[in-house]
Structures are given as structure tokens and as C-alpha cells.
Design goal:
Layout (H helix, E strand, L loop, with lengths): L2 H6 L4 E6 L12 E8 L4 E3 L3 E5 L11 E4 L11 E4 L7 E5 L3 E7 L6 H12 L4 E14 L7 E16 L15 H38 L2
Parallel strand pairs: 4-10, 5-10
Antiparallel strand pairs: 1-9, 2-8, 3-4, 5-6, 7-8, 9-10
């Protein structure tokens, strides 16, 4: 898949979470461990709806080829990569009870970008992790309320995970977007579901009217 196809045609979505439990191994310099996503953590998406990731949303298929980038920059070389978590992969991904865990040993001796990223993470200058994804299955609740709830049941594909500069919020409200069109995609998804619900409700009303009219004719 070409870079411009990912950037320009895919309706990709980025989520940024607070970096928690990052581990820097003293035994092997350049090692970074942490979580790219957390299960059941409520995220406010642009003030339009709240979202959480259901345990089980990450599948083997969705994690078959995942890159480790910086700030979602698809134009730069990946600092690490997981291909089905094979032994020769430089990025290891694990789904546990907390979320999507990652571990990588950055090549800080031969790669300047890797060295700079590792330094920024270890110093705390970069304090966010994010990932880019497509959704396969989702569930909506409370569509009649100001803040509906979306639960991501299954991801279609995870393209990459990234350390990022600017988490917008802290705690359970951490959220950001790298591209304004991603926000529009989220808004359109919500409006589409609401429209479908409205059509469904209208049909139910019409059916009820027809049934009532038919019963009146039988009197």
C-alpha cells in the first residue's frame, strides 16, 4: 500500500493516550515498553461522542503488519515494525487484560531518529502514545443524548503506533487528532448512525399508524 493511499484515501483515525508504565531497560539500551491503547478507557471524541475500546477489539488479523513511527509520519522510515510478531520483527505487540502492549529495542547506535526518539521518551519530553486504525465492528448507545457512546468491538487494521508530542487531555479524557478530516469522519459516522435510527423510527411510526387505521376499519 502506497503512502499517499494511506494518507489521502483511507478514513484513518488517531487516538492519543497518556503514556503509562513506560519501561526503559538498563540491560539493553534503547528498549521501550508501554501501552499504545487502553481497554475500557472513555475518550471524548471532539465533543461529539464518547468512545471506549472493548477487550477483544484487537485481533491477529488487525495486527498483522504494524509500524512504529513518530507523530504518525508515514513519509519517514519506520523505527521498528511488527509482521505477525515473528521472531525477526523489531516491534513486539501483545494484547493483555489492560490493552495493547508494545515492546521495541530502538537502534539508537545506527539511527539518529531512533536515538532522538528514545532520548525524548526517556526525558519525558514526549509523553503521548497514539495509533492509527480502521474499525470493523462498532456499537452505538444513547444516540438520543448529547454525548452518545461508541464501543469499538473489533478493529479492521492497525497501521502504526506512534510516540506523539501533544496529548490534549489527561487521564480518561485524553484525545487528539493529527488530521482535521479524521474529526469529520467521526462526526459523519455519528450522523450516519443517527440518520439510520431516525429512518427506522419513522418506519415504526408509519407501521403503527397503518395498524391503528386497519383496526379502526374493522370496528
Amino acid at each position: 500500500m502506497k503512502v499517499n493511499q494511506i494518507e489521502d484515501t483511507l478514513e484513518k483515525v488517531n487516538r492519543i493516550y497518556e503514556v503509562r508504565d513506560l519501561v526503559f531497560s538498563e540491560d539493553e539500551e534503547g528498549t521501550v515498553e508501554g501501552y499504545a491503547a487502553i481497554f475500557n478507557e472513555v475518550t471524548n471524541v471532539g465533543g461529539w461522542f464518547e468512545e471506549r475500546i472493548n477487550p477483544g477489539a484487537f485481533t491477529t488479523e488487525s495486527l498483522k503488519d504494524v509500524a512504529f513511527l513518530v507523530n504518525h509520519d508515514f513519509k519517514k522510515l519506520a523505527l521498528a515494525r511488527s509482521r505477525n510478531n515473528k521472531p525477526d520483527s523489531t516491534l513486539y505487540l501483545e494484547v493483555d487484560e489492560k490493552g495493547l502492549k508494545f515492546r521495541t529495542v530502538l537502534d539508537i547506535k545506527n539511527n539518529t531518529d531512533a536515538m532522538n526518539t528514545y532520548s525524548a521518551l526517556k526525558r519525558g519530553d514526549v509523553d503521548g502514545m497514539s495509533f492509527t486504525f480502521l474499525i470493523k465492528r462498532q456499537e452505538w448507545d444513547d444516540l438520543d443524548k448529547e454525548l452518545p457512546q461508541r464501543t469499538i468491538l473489533e478493529f479492521k487494521q492497525i497501521f502504526e503506533i506512534s510516540p506523539v508530542n501533544w496529548p490534549q487531555y489527561q487521564g480518561t479524557e485524553i484525545y487528539a487528532r493529527q488530521h482535521s478530516e479524521s474529526l469529520e469522519n467521526d462526526k459523519n459516522a455519528l450522523e450516519s448512525v443517527r440518520s439510520q435510527l431516525q429512518v427506522s423510527n419513522n418506519k415504526e411510526v408509519e407501521i403503527a399508524k397503518e395498524k391503528a387505521l386497519f383496526e379502526m376499519q374493522d370496528l
